[in-house]
Amino acid sequence: MEKRDFTITAETGIHARPATILVQAASKFASDVTLSYEGKSVNLKSIMGVMSLGVGQNANVTITASGDDEKEALDAVAETMKKEGLTD
Amino acid sequence: MSLLLNGLAASNGIAIAPAYLLVGSDLSVQKQHTNDKDHEVTRLHDSFAFSRQELRRIRDQAHERLGQRAATVVDTQLAMLGDPALFAMMRQKIMQSGVTAEWAVKRTADHYLTIFEKQNDNDYLQARGTAMRDVTKRLLSHLLAVELPDPQKLDHRAIIVAQNITPTDTAQFDRRYVAGLVTDTGGRTSHFTIMSRTLSLPVVVGTKTATAEIKNGDLLIVDGIHGKVLVRPTEDEVERYRLLAGKFAREQEAWGAVRNQQTISADGRHFEVAANVGTLADLEDARKNGAEGIGLLRTEFLYMNQSRLPSEEEQFRAYKQFVAGMNEKQVVARTLDVGGDKRLGMVPLPAEANPYLGFRAIRVGLARPEILRPQLRALLRASVYGRLAIMFPMVATLEEFHRARAILEEERTRLSTAGVPLAQDIELGMMLEIPAVAMMADVFAPEVDFFSIGSNDLVQYLFAADRGNPQVAYLYQELHPAVLRTVKRVIDAAHAEGKWVGMCGEMAGNPLAAPLLMGMGLDEFSMSSNRILQIRSLIKKLNTRQLQPLVHRALNARSATEVTDLVRSAVQDLAD
Fold first, then answer.
1. A85 — contact with chain B (CB < 8 Å)?
2. pLDDT tens digits, residue range B255-277?
3. B3-23+150-252 with B257-574: one CATH topology?
4. Interchain CB distance below 8 Å, B307 and A84
5. Which uninterrupted H or E stretch holds B535?
6. pLDDT by residue (tens digit) across B2-43?
7. How many helices (H) and strands (E) in chain A?
8. Which in B63, B225, B257, B391 has the greatest CB count within 10 A?
9. Helix B68-81 vs helix B37-66: crossing angle, to nearest 10
């Protein structure tokens, strides 16, 4: 299992647009990918789950991936977060 | 008998076509039980399938017409419909409580909307809630077999009738089918009316009752020249308006003839007729209409729909396209003008009781130099690709201008020390929108290279009236002697110091104002591109010296109505 912590720096948090793009990125991989925030975990391939978490600015989140392509999945998600301006 | 609705003339032209109402149809649902749960699940399943099919089409069209960013808005809704968790929750409600698919959809949506609304995390424009509501509407429209109003579904020429229109709505219209627009609210300078003028669509706003009085398919005449809407017109009226539309089309053609000419008055004075632009599409329009320059480059587009500030590099690339795109013609870029009615997601500003009198434009730039500095660096770097000028918006005092100029000079020095090539002759000016500055114009004039009069805000501040509020919009009077005297004062003060004056508000493109502005010696008229040719052909016919008695009478008139009458009787072309 791959696991990484992130701090969301974007002022608007994970709002609709980056949530959509993150879900699209995670869904390309076979591994299970989860997003955890304040003790709650959701499937990062489920936009309803990601949106329900309400991740705002300065939130500390953890993303885990487990499966055959866990490393690639986590790298791709981290890359997308940076590209979308969610993290520094 | 036809019905006449009066509103504000917001975009020129005449259209005769059936109405297409862009208002929500009744999608209310009641709690109902079913005996055939499997049937309800099948119906739910079908509504998902149909909705996804529709959204894919909308997404592809948005992508083609507006690009990836606009398409992502639709992608969010597609991702929701493709999320097994959403379908599962709805199905569970049917299976457990035996309710109809409609009720399951509504309850599930309410569940999520409550969660989203509780999260007080400044989700920009409440985009999640909007997406959830849009998805719900679409599912319910299939379950209830009612049609959703959707400008993209239009497959025949029609006039759009709505309460109000968002910038996103305007961008989604297929121009081939939209003959005109009529709204209940909004003013002449709402975002969508400005946009409609670039698309040459006739628009009447502020009718108050259009959506209540007009039914889908009613024949309408939209007279965007006089601000009238005729509902279910008689044959005689249709005939009369066809003639008017013909006259308007001939005028348009005559204006086309001056496209590649310079704007020189009958007595040989050159006036610059320039364009206001805010996107690359606008730049294309400006070139098509023969703009002699860009009098206002709005830089806000770089900051819209973004989750973070645009980098210096991104800004540089964008400014370079505008500066290079005008082939050595001047491009006047305005630094970020946020605040007032322009809110941006990634520059959150505190809520204010009076945003128009509050923290906006250069006030934000001076307080947040981390926004202003990269923008100035990007502009300076773009200066070598053509003829760039820079102006600061909403300067109120000389001290503000000095502070902003000092920041610009620091960045200029920093860049040249680093060996970055910069143009030597970048003119630096300021927007003139605040009456206090007009009173002090003689003090500012030696310090600036030019003034650009932002007439929309100036008129608004002179009359203390919000142009977007239909109840006080009548006070927004561009032709009032108070405005003319203010403008005259500014022009005289600038000319005494050998500086030029432009105007980049709506007034610059108003044919009734043009003879007066010419007569007072305004040097540059900057406007929506679709107004350029009309104003140029008008200026070419007029003689500045012969206009002096008119200017004198207008400055001494008592009201805007008197001024309008004076102009109409003095200028043959403008006689109504």
1. yes
2. 888 988 999 999 999 999 999 99
3. no
4. yes
5. helix B532-541
6. 899 999 888 888 999 999 998 867 788 999 999 999 999 999
7. 3, 4
8. B391
9. 170
Cα dihedral B209→B210→B215→B219 (10° resolution): 140
Count of other CB atoms within 10 angstroms of residue A79: 11
Q: Which of A13, A43, A86 sits opposite B123 (nearest CB)?
A: A13
* CATH dotted code for B3-23+150-252: 3.50.30.10
Find out whether B197 and B12 touch, Cβ atoms under 8 Å.
yes
Structural domain boundaries of chain B? Answer: 3-23+150-252, 37-143, 257-574
| Nearest alpha carbon to residue B404 among B386, B430, B380 | B430
Using CB atoms and an 8 Å cut-off, which of residues 330-389 of chain B contact chain A? 345-346, 348
Query: Which of B52, B59, B63, B76 should we substitute to test contact with A (largest number of A Cβ atoms within 10 Å)?
Result: B76
* Contact: B308, A11; criterion CB under 8 Å: yes
From the list B111, B226, B495, B504, the catalytic residue is B504
Six-digit token pair at B416? 């040249």
Strands (DSSP E) contained in B163-293 are: 178-183, 203-205, 219-223, 228-231, 272-277
B401 contacts: CB under 8 Å, gap ≥ 6: B392, B395, B430, B444, B447, B448
- For domain B257-574, the CATH architecture is Alpha-Beta Barrel (3.20)
Classify B37-143 by CATH class: mainly alpha
Which residues in B lie closer than 8 A to residue A10 (C-beta atoms)?
307-308, 346
Structural domains of chain A, with CATH: 2-83 (3.30.1340.10)
Cα–Cα distance list, B536 to B156, B166, B359, B499, B505 (Å): 35, 31, 37, 23, 16
Could you read off the pLDDT of B42-69 as tens digits, one per residue?
999 999 999 999 889 888 877 776 667 6
Does any CB of chain A come closer than 8 Å to the CB of residue B115? yes
Tokens 């005297």 locate to: B485
B191 is catalytic: yes
Residues 39-58 of chain A whose Cβ lies under 8 A from any Cβ of chain B: 43, 46-49, 51-52, 54-57
A20 closest CB neighbour out of B79, B122, B345: B79
